[in-house]
Write a structure and sequence with these properties.
This protein is an alpha+beta fold. The chain is 31% helix and 23% strand. Its main location: cytoplasm.
Length: 105
């Protein structure tokens, strides 16, 4: 089974290393180990548990990504929905906790 959503990169810096790292950490939480979390962009499907895969998407500000959360067992539905909410919130907030301070740019 798959939960599918469209998320938008809001940061003016796009999906740079810091937010990719946080996204990977969220996706790699132990409670999410039995579900697959993927991002699709421009025909490329990236495992959201891998910083390198996320960075390989080359997503920029305003880019729409497809977030897919896959699970096999109905028992994992609540876990998948929890991951979905956490990841959507990450994108909706513009991953403000991962922003590069202006003085570092």
């Amino acid at each position: 089974m798959t939960l599918t959503n469209v998320v938008t990169i809001k940061s003016k810096n796009g999906m740079h290393l810091r937010p990719a790292g946080i996204l990977s950490q969220i996706s790699s939480k132990s409670e999410y180990s039995d579900i697959g979390i993927f991002l699709l962009y421009n025909g490329v499907r990236a495992d959201a548990k891998s910083v390198f895969n996320i960075m390989g998407l080359g997503a920029f500000q305003g880019a729409n990504l497809i977030l897919e959360i896959e699970y096999e067992d109905e028992k994992l539905e609540e876990t998948a929905k929890s991951a979905e909410k956490e990841l959507i919130d990450f994108f909706e907030e513009g991953y403000i906790h991962a922003e590069v301070p202006e003085e570092e740019i």
